[in-house]
Every structure is written in C-alpha cells, then in structure tokens.
Amino acid sequence: MSSFSIHLMLKSSGIVGIRAYEQLGYRAFGTPGKMAAAIAIALQNVGGYLGSTSGFSLSCMVFFLVAVIYKKFQIPCPFEDFSVNSTSALHSLNISSHSLEHNSALVHEDEDSYCEASLFTINSKTVYTIPIMAFAFSCHPEVLPIYTELRNPTKKRMQQVSNISILVMYTMYLLAALFGYLTFYGKVEPELLHTYNRIDPYDTLILCVRVATLIAVTLTVPILLFPVRRAIQHILFPTKSFSWLRHIAIALVLLTLMNMMVIFAPNILGIFGIIGATSSPCLIFIFPAVFYLRIVPKEDEPMSSVPKILAVCFAVVGISFMVMSLSFILIDWTMGSSNAGGGH
C-alpha cells in the first residue's frame, strides 16, 4: 500500500512538475490542500523525533536487531524476573523454606504456560497495530525531495528506490518484532527495550543499544526539524522571507514541546498510536489518492478508468483506517488501559 501511494505521488508530481508534498496539496486544492498536507507532515515528524530516520540511525537499527536476535538465544523461558528476585531476597528472612518452595513451584507452573507462541493475540493493545504500522512506513514527505536529488531522476527509478527501502525496513521490523516476541512471549511490553529490564537492568549489551538509540535520535533531530519547520512556515508565514530569528525560534519551540512530551507521556505507545491514526493515513492513503484524482486530467484518465477507481478505493481504505483506529484508541484511553505497562 505504501508503494502504491508513492506511485500515485510520483505520477501526480510528474504531471505538474512539483517536487514538494505541500505544493502538490496547493496545486490540487489551493491553500486548504497545502495547509492539510503541512499539518499532517508536522504531526508525523513530531512523532518522528521519538523514532529515528537517518543513515546512522539505520546502523543503530541493525545493531538493535542483532542484539534482539542474540538475546533470544541467551534468555531462557521462563525467565527469572529481576524485580521479583530482588523483592524475594529482601523478605527471605521472614519466609519459611517450605512456603518459598511452594510459591516458587506455583510461579514456574504459571510461567511455563506463557512460553508458547500464539499466532494471534487479541487484547487492548491490538488497536495500536495498524496505526503504528502506518506510522512506521510513512516516508512520503521525503519521497519528492529525494526524487529531486537523484542523479537521473525518473519515476521508475524513484519507485525502485522506494520499493527497496520499504522492503528492507519491513524485513528489519518483522525480524525485531518476531525475535522480541519469541524471547518474552506473553510478557513482552509495548516498549521492547524496557522489557529487558525485567531480566537485568544493567545488561551491558542492552545498555549499549539504549545509548546507540539515544545518539541516533539526537543526531536525527536536525533532519526532522527541516520538514516540520517548512510545514510551519507554510502554515503560519507563507509570504515571509527567511529570518534567522524565526528559524531558531521555531526550532526551540519544537524541541521544548518534544521534551515535554517525552517527560510527561506515560509511554510511547499512545504517541505513536494517535499520530499513526491521524497523520499517517492522510500521508499514505488519503492525500496521494485525492491529489491524484484532482491533478490528473480527466482527458487522460476519466473517473471510470481503472487507476482512478483504485485511487478512490485507496482513499476510502485510508478514511476507514483512520476512523476505526481513532475510535478504538479513544475507547482504550477511556477505559484507562493505555497506561498499563511500558515506560521510558
């Protein structure tokens, strides 16, 4: 789906000769289209501050993946919970040997039951699956700028670049999720690295992965500042000339907001979920489809043509995903289950 939406974007861009997402929106629907695209890009990259997208961060993701796969074969299941062991040690003097052995047997009997893989797991966190997947593959604001920078820019070549990138990232996400799940099974938490704290919070390899992730996110901030700042400029200062004061002020405000979000948000699951349910469907499904319908002349492709029918269906799928995901996430928040588990 992500590849098909990139195909729609590239075709629309080729017709009007525009290489910016916001300008495609302006060409299709005027100022409202440009504003909608800019807001969606800003929201998407706000969430991106808490992820990472750069060459160095890609290396860190490979390091993360290797560590997760290695830990799968190092950590036994059932595993010994560090916090439980610490608590037991503190109270060991007050517990008789007979009751300790009895409780240990009960714990191991319960733990053995979760060391089995389930093909499908349905719980309150399942509603975040589609939004987070949409967020993970929402690379569309960067497609047109990269298209411009190619040595021999053609739609076919850019489509190949996009397809290979999506395939590589999908493979890495799949392997990390698979081996992370097969390590902890039913006890895996929304934030995988946080789950390893239950084994050993001072594990050297996991601490190195955390540091690498922190460095990757920090060094990625300037990259992510660019599209957000450009989107804000389009929204608030469309006719103003460049100003260093405004340039720096926007960056400081954005960084302050992101730091507050990281500090006060209970976990990252809700952030990725709400952004993935709002801006990501717009950037992946809705905007490429409606821009394509609006920009491609009816003389070239009438509304009854197969490409435009597919574009309409694509937009409907995006709207359905957005409504469904937002509804379930709001229900989950209302029930108060989104605060369970996880951490920074």
Automatic annotation (TrEMBL):
Entry keyword set: Membrane, Transmembrane, Transmembrane helix
Keyword Membrane (UniProt): yes
Transmembrane regions: 49-70, 164-184, 204-226, 247-265, 271-297, 309-331
Topological relation to the membrane, as annotated: Multi-pass membrane protein
GO CC term (a single one): plasma membrane
Domain spans labelled Amino acid transporter transmembrane: 2-330
Subcellular location: Membrane
A GO BP entry: histidine transport
UniProt GO MF annotations: L-asparagine transmembrane transporter activity; L-glutamine transmembrane transporter activity; L-histidine transmembrane transporter activity
PANTHER family named in the record: AMINO ACID TRANSPORTER, SODIUM-COUPLED NEUTRAL AMINO ACID TRANSPORTER 3
Protein name: Sodium-coupled neutral amino acid transporter 3-like
Provenance organism: Scomber scombrus
Upper classification of the organism: Eukaryota, Metazoa, Chordata, Craniata, Vertebrata
